[in-house]
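RETRY 2/3 - previous attempt timed out on the joint model. Re-submitting the same 674-residue input unchanged.
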Amino acid sequence: MPERKGQYTVTLSGRPTILGYSAVVGKKEGEGPLGRYFDMVFEDTTLGEKTWEKAESALQREAFTRALNKAGISPSQVNYMFAGDLLNQSIASTFGLREFGVPLMGQFGACSTMAQTLALAAIFVDSGAADICAAITSSHFCAAERQFRFPLEYGGQRPPTSQWTATAAGAVIVGFGGNGVKIADVTVGYITDFGINDTNNMGAAMAPAAAETLNAYLIDTGTRPDDYDLIVTGDLGAIGSELFRELMERKSFQLGANYSDCGMMLYDRSRQDVHAGGSGCGCSASVLCSYILSKMTSGELKNVLFIATGALMSPTSSQQGESIPGIAHLCHLVKTE
Amino acid sequence: MPERKGQYTVTLSGRPTILGYSAVVGKKEGEGPLGRYFDMVFEDTTLGEKTWEKAESALQREAFTRALNKAGISPSQVNYMFAGDLLNQSIASTFGLREFGVPLMGQFGACSTMAQTLALAAIFVDSGAADICAAITSSHFCAAERQFRFPLEYGGQRPPTSQWTATAAGAVIVGFGGNGVKIADVTVGYITDFGINDTNNMGAAMAPAAAETLNAYLIDTGTRPDDYDLIVTGDLGAIGSELFRELMERKSFQLGANYSDCGMMLYDRSRQDVHAGGSGCGCSASVLCSYILSKMTSGELKNVLFIATGALMSPTSSQQGESIPGIAHLCHLVKTE
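RETRY 2/3 succeeded.
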């Protein structure tokens, strides 16, 4: 049963289990340091589809299908899919998941979507509203570039603060039973806006939200950063993650070597041209559903805080002079045996 | 506690209560048959803002603030906001609700958003994951036209099958206690796609989804349409609601005079130029949060099925030749005393 703990956190006393998970990625992500952890690397990032948007849908379909297979579960056993993405009207999810016949609640949390969907899946299972839920998200570099910035053909310059939208999808199946990784607590964040309006510096816009959410969780649970094997943010990148460390320090929480960022883990910045690091819903999703969950399954990591971060702007809001509201959601994952 | 009933339905045994609700609308909606039921009619649909998108944000802010006031609740007492809209990256919600400091889970269900957010709010409260939740959504004719079709300045012709996106927002506060309207059951729908690709005939694209969801609910609960005072779909309009009747008949459920559609209720088609009826997230939201909930509060309606419907396409998916996937979510509302 979900129980409220402190002001912002919900403890899931039944500890719903991750029954299956999968990450599928594009060529560049496959060439990164986590390459061998992914279930599938698509050398051809069109996935044989005619458009980038359809390719992103295919990524989601692939991740969900593989997660189901690994869990030994059929689509008809899944009560709800929680899914979302960065494309206008979430078409990567809608068209990618259309064929499964599973009740769908579309989610929008920008790049925080993996944590938001996982939190919802866990709460639904823990409460008895569902037996089995899926949490699914994706992003695609080429679809995101032409929607948020410029079509690739334009050959636009990218400033050093900019991040690289991951071509990747992740899917998690949540239910009860088995001795897999469990979701112990969830902290849903509120919007934090420090007035940053540089859409090429999203890490800085999201760092304050990540700090608010982690701070809320640590206060609610009475724990400290060094109680965890790994604290990992979604896609703050090089600049955002340094800012995040500073902001946590101001809140009197020192982050040690156990802190990392999915945007820094997905690529090797010294040999891959990604500027400040990775981003996109698929960034934290694919790092969670490959490296993190496999290290937890093997018991190398036992106690992890996964904090996915989102920048809730659109090209329209930026053109109208608005700043970039940030948000971050946290899932506390544990492996007990 | 939420309990699963049949294949698709969740019964909320604690029966969460609607503690407050509010609908605010634009001039045209205020001139319609439900004019006197709205909390506020904005004669100036810019709401004093510089852009249509900011005006839509202001509508959400206004609806949420009024719903809180009517419930006698402060924002700090609200554990979660579930909110969404039709604009790219849901900016009406993000910017409209940014200032409240309430944890936010952004939702995307196109025009089904009012039912989706209400279902989530009710499940969270019933499960103990939250004490108080808010469900909020909006649409704005001028913002929707320029995003989905043409800027108003273009003066495009609208075919008779087209619907009029409502300039409206609705907000509901859900918690326990009091003798208000209660949410008894929830049925979340799956995507239904009959291959319709005419974006000027969304009612036809959504009708099959509404029929699937109502059919699932009736089978799960062993009830029949005439067990309810009112069965109301979201925004099928004149064409979609006739189709919906036919599809239900093929499923051996005859809908009587107790069936209506929010898109048909919001405007007077004989004197207001809305072609096939109203649409948009704000359409079903504003009809629910004015006429329906006030008739339930007074006891004139006691047993209502609210089925909001969504068309999950984007201009990009339509340009790429895709059909329009439909979805519909149902909330069973009761007033017992």
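Chain A has a mean pLDDT of 97. Closing ticket.
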